[in-house]
Amino acid sequence: MALDEATVRSIAKLARIRVADDDLPGLANELNNILGWIEQLNEVDTDGVEPLTVVGDAQTPMRQDVVNDGDIRDDVLANAPDAEPEFFTVPKVVE
Amino acid sequence: MSDALTSLTIAQAAAKLAAGETSSVELTDAHIAAMEAHRDLNAFITETPDLARARAAESDARRASGDARGPLDGIPIAMKDLFCTEGVLTTAASHILDGFTPTYESTVSRKLREVGTVMLGKANLDEFAMGSANVTSYYGPVKSPWKAADGKDRVPGGSSGGSATAVAANIAMAATGTDTGGSIRQPAAFCGIVGLKPTYGRCSRWGIVAFASSLDQAGPMTKTVEDAAIMLSAMAGYDPMDSTSADKPVPDFAAALTGDIKGLKVGIPIEYRVEGMPYEIEEAWQKGVEWLKDQGAEIVEVSLPHTKYALPTYYIVAPAEASSNLARYDGVRYGLRVEGGDLTEMYEATRGEGFGAEVRRRVLIGAYVLSAGYYDAYYLKAQKLRTLILRDFTDAFDKVDVLLTPTAPSAAFAIGEKMDDPVAMYLNDVFAVPASLAGLPAISVPGGLSSEGLPLGLHLIGRAFDEETVLRAGQALETAAGFTARPAGF
Predict the structure, then answer these.
(1) SS3 of B79, please?
(2) What is the pLDDT of residues B30-63, one digit of tens each?
């Protein structure tokens, strides 16, 4: 299932990455090479095999439901490229 | 004098410090001088000499008052620039993290700081740790100190290429690395040093810039196996901040280095004899087999039938997790923002400009394999393959204690090679990736030189949480190999 340029454009849209039109053919080619190589997995019969999502102990540790940090607003905002004193900012989203 | 100091191992330096024959300030100054003398290698993104001198002075003061904190107190190290360091620029070698200065310290770097190590700077890497040659860094490629007869600059491997170069060039006594699919072991092999990827969960991932969360693991990169054991004891341990970190006691790994491997069952996986593998890799591997046999190990052929599917499985799982992890770089909360007409345009412009070509490729692959209609065909399929790969190892470890393989299918190649073929680049990690998918501990130890005079690594894979056997067998290889070669001029 080779990717055409329109599909690459729509994946890039899903991933919120701007790709210049000039880059699309080369990128489609690279992605197709990688996906073509990955297709060899279809040689393996995996019917009835459980998928593995976590190695090791899959049990999520429990802890007390208490606040253990907080009051770090300025730390959280410290690296924002265009923060107001108390807020992250984004371009206007409502008219 | 300073050459004598920069060529020391951690164990040797710790002994000298304890005996009062040198000071941390003296060691640190010698390494800072080496860092400054070898800037052409591009091993560091950020140098922190002032911080290093201050921490060295604190270490010496502690020692003077009888409060030295063990073998790492006062030891100058390089920190891969994937670990968040409080008040020190942290880039992940990406343009998109421009100016990011964490207000907190990663667990591993904090633990290393608490035992007294002195951070010399933040080591260069492949962008977001995605690469096998350290050529995808926004801050430019790292050069290995090793050169072949053709005189061309060699890649140090990747993604922990700056860390590997810093240790191999005697700029840092040791370094931290991270390994998602070979990023500690392959550069260690290329640069002739020791690199250990611990069991998944052994070291906390908290504060490490995330690439593929089910695979990422921090580990030491050092001159010797003993140093790796010393470093790992300090880096490992349960951390409530990482729900996947293992709540298990941390052994004294150096104590496991008994030198005795009599009766150890060493598995040789037949599927690692891949077609087209250079003869000298096969030869180095065979030497490793003989070295272990000579020391009393029992050699057993084993089969890991799904080995050839590990790499393509990895190139679904890792990009899928990366596309999810890297969604956080949105131009709002940290780093680069490129303005656009509206919110979506701002996201697209920021991410379009902020990510390099390899990161973009992997995020797109990840988005695709997770997208509606393709999830089952790719992502679910890969997760099932991962089960089979883990099962191969589980079966093998019913029969043997450790597996011996080459670390990489070749020695280091020249900077610029394999750049136009992503799959050729990915094949560097063909022997490293299976252990990553299974979450197993594995070490690369220098095994000799190629015909071109470049280092080759031998690779040992162990049972989950059995770093001790991996280290013990690694030291047996190290002793037998007697690898003393140095890059010319270093």
Answers:
(1) strand
(2) 999 999 999 999 999 999 999 999 999 999 999 9
| pLDDT tens digits for range B354-373 | 999 999 999 999 999 999 89
Q: How confident is the model at residue A33 (pLDDT cuts 50, 70, 90)?
A: very high
Chain A residues in contact with B336 by the CB 8 A cut-off are 81
Domain B2-258: give its CATH code: 3.90.1300.10
Q: At what angle do helices B225-235 and B467-481 cross, to 10 degrees?
A: 160
Please name the residue that has the structure tokens 């393509």. B312
Residue B457's H or E segment, with its range, is strand B455-462
Contact B312 A40 (CB under 8 A): yes
Cβ–Cβ of B383/A91 closer than 8 Å? no
Give the C-alpha separation, B16 to B67, whole Å.
16
- C-alpha to C-alpha distance for B237 and B107, rounded to whole angstroms: 10
Tell me, what's the ipTM? 0.95
Residue A1 pLDDT exceeds 60: no
Domain boundaries, chain B: 2-258, 308-383
Whether residue B159 is preceded by a cis peptide bond, meaning omega within 30 degrees of 0, is yes
Measured distance CA(B204)–CA(B221) in Å, rounded? 17
Q: What is the CA radius of gyration of chain B?
A: 21
Task: Classify the C-alpha dihedral B48-B51-B56-B62 as positive or negative.
Answer: negative
Residue ranges of A 48-77 with Cβ closer than 8 A to chain B: 49-57, 60-61, 63, 72, 75
Give the chain A residue whose CA is nearest to the CA of B383.
Answer: A51
- Enzyme catalytic residues of B: 80, 159, 183
Cα distances from B370 to residues A33, B366, B403, in angstroms, run: 18, 6, 33
On whether the CB atoms of residues B379 and A47 are closer than 8 A, the answer is no
Structure tokens at B362: 């992997």
Q: Nearest CA to A7 among B27, B1, B139, B373? A: B373
> pTM value?
0.97
For residue B423, give the nearest of A27, A33, A50 by CB distance: A33
CB–CB of A34 and B243 under 8 A? no
Buried b (16+ CB within 10 A) or exposed e, B416-434: ebbeeebbebbbbbbbbbb
